[in-house]
Amino acid sequence: MHRIPFAMASAAIAVALFAGPSALAQKPGGTLVQITQPEPPNLAPYISTSGPIGQVTAKVFDGLLDYDFDLKPKPALAESFTVAPDGKTVTFKLRKDVKFHDGKPFTSADVRFTIMDVLKTNHPRGIATFKEVTAVETPDPHTAVFKLATPAPYMMMALSGYESPILPKHVYGVGDIKTHAKANEPVGTGPFRFVEWRRGEFVRLDKNKDYWRAGQPYLDRIVVRFIADASTRTAALEKGEAHVAGFGAVPYNDVKKLGALPSLEVTTKGYEMISPIVELVINTRKPPFDNQKVRQAVSYAVDRKFVIDNVWFGFGKPAMGPISSNFAPSGLYAAGIDFTVADRIERANKLLDEAGFPKKADGFRFEIVHDITPYGEEWQRFGEAVQQALAQVGIKATLRYEDVAKWLKRLYTDYDYFISSNFLYNLADPVLGVHRGFHSDRIKPGTVFVNGARWSTPETDALMDKATVEADAAKRSVLYKDLVQKVSEGSPVIYVLELQFPTIVNKQFRNVITGPLGIYGNFATAYRQ
After folding, report:
1. What pLDDT is attached to residue 472?
2. Pairing between strand 509-510 and 78-83?
3. DSSP string for 376-402
4. Which of 146, 356, 378, 465 is the most exposed place for a label (fewest CB within 10 A)?
């Protein structure tokens, strides 16, 4: 076996890595107020990847690993790991000084339970991440040995506290994990402990005084506020009543104004491990969208440049397929059909005519309902832009805006929709974030943010299966190029833009955004100046 070294030299070096030199100037204590919009539907990140959840729970749960901005792993609950030469065994050496928030010790049994009994079977992305894991052996309380059917190097990119939170078996191993009593009172090993969730107002997280990283966290408390009105969110940051907000919580037209204030700074860092793509997911089993030409027509009709400029105020670029251009350096990026061509409206109309949907006397071909992602003002404006674009080609769309829980159920349990806006993360490897959108084994009623389009083909499934285990980068690149082309042709999802989220941070707080997960980080090193 060969050892993968990282941050093992000494405790002093480890503290320097995590705290940073500016920690010497910190003022201990204080409360950081974070704005999250919308309010999360639950606090159960092990069964739901709804965007707002992790903004809260990543402070409560730890993962086996953390990551640098260059996406290289750092120690967390695992002090080190070794990978067997054949890639089929990964051994994690676990920390011995970790306690859950209820005082019970963390052991390898908790890792085995989390991976095998929860994430592998219930987590929307864990289904893919841990697909090849056949067993987690626990030879002693501080060693966890992952046994894999085939090598899965992508798995090592998905072990953060946000993506794969480690749960206490003695808590979550009792009862149904999908309806667990502690779903909204999370218990983890993270730097902050859950105290209270006052619905419609805030979640309060207090300092974990027994946190295993000596001296951390520096803050006394994090309060995550839920403010429905966009202008009130902006005002709270402007007045210093709130200190950090990201993921579109601040209206994009307000970002530059806030960034000009001496008390605030704006950054687009902290999303490197996420690579979000705004999309329109289509119910491909509901007429008229069971027709490929109709789906392609919609993709031509949507004006990506207009959406970027007028909805997200320039924070993005046109998406050319399901894989983000952030993967270009690794050779995995490929562009599909160019739906941004100058004659796109003419092409859309021609496709709809060929599909057998001529315009009627009123100028419309057929009528649908367009469901809007319930994540705020931008998404409502996006819905209106889509409505106008569809009208240009003779499709009458009525807009529907529901709360998060109803919207998720409609899309991923009932499949009771025509077309809906959405955004999915590509994450650190296409296996983790891309395959779930159109692989047949991700058609799982009740599991959110997977294949809600219910489109798949044997050919695309085979390409993804091969890419999952292909170790040769050049061969993997060819597989993804072919995959993107076939998905573009099928158009089960309309890929609109690669979204760049701005994060606003009050300058009295430092070390807030310290890694590629940004607000999905744990804020253990955040401090007041």
Report:
1. 83
2. unpaired
3. -HHHHHHHHHHHHHHHHTTEEEEEE--
4. 356
Q: The pTM is what?
A: 0.81
Q: In what order do the strands lie in the sheet with 202-207?
A: 192-198, 202-207, 221-225, 31-35, 244-245, 503-506, 264-267
What DSSP string describes 238-283? Answer: HTTS--EE-TT-S-HHHHHHHHTSTTEEEE--S-TTT-EEEEEEE-
Please list the ranges in the chain whose pLDDT falls under 70.
1-27
pLDDT at 27: 67
The domain in which residue 399 lies consists of 276-499
Flag whether 6 is in a domain.
no
Q: How far apart are CA 432 and CA 426, in angstroms?
A: 7
| Dist CA 124 CA 436 (whole Å) | 8
DSSP code of residue 513: S
Say if 452 falls within a structural domain. Answer: yes
How many other CB atoms are found less than 10 A from the CB of residue 420? 23
Cα–Cα distance between 418 and 97 in angstroms, integer? 51
Q: Which amino acid is at 109?
A: A
Distance CA 280, CA 294 (A): 13
> In the chain, how many H helices and how many E strands?
16, 22
Q: What is the DSSP letter of 59?
A: T
Q: Is residue 90 part of a domain?
A: no
Any domain includes 494: yes
Is-cis flag, bond preceding 105, omega within 30?
A: no
Total domains in the fold of the chain = 1
Helix H segments across 364-497? Answer: 377-392, 404-412, 430-433, 458-469, 473-490
Pull the structure tokens for residue 61: 């749960």
| Percent of the chain residues past pLDDT 90, beyond the cut | 88
Strand order, beta sheet including 419-425: 316-318, 493-499, 276-282, 419-425, 366-371, 395-400
According to the model, what pLDDT value does residue 18 have?
Answer: 36
CATH number for the domain harbouring residue 495: 3.10.105.10
Sequence letter at residue 384? E
Rounded CA-CA distance 151/155 in Å is 9
Q: Classify strands 366-371 and 395-400 as parallel, antiparallel or unpaired.
A: parallel
Q: Longest C-alpha distance within the chain, in Å?
A: 77
Q: How far is CA 296 from the centre of its chain?
A: 26
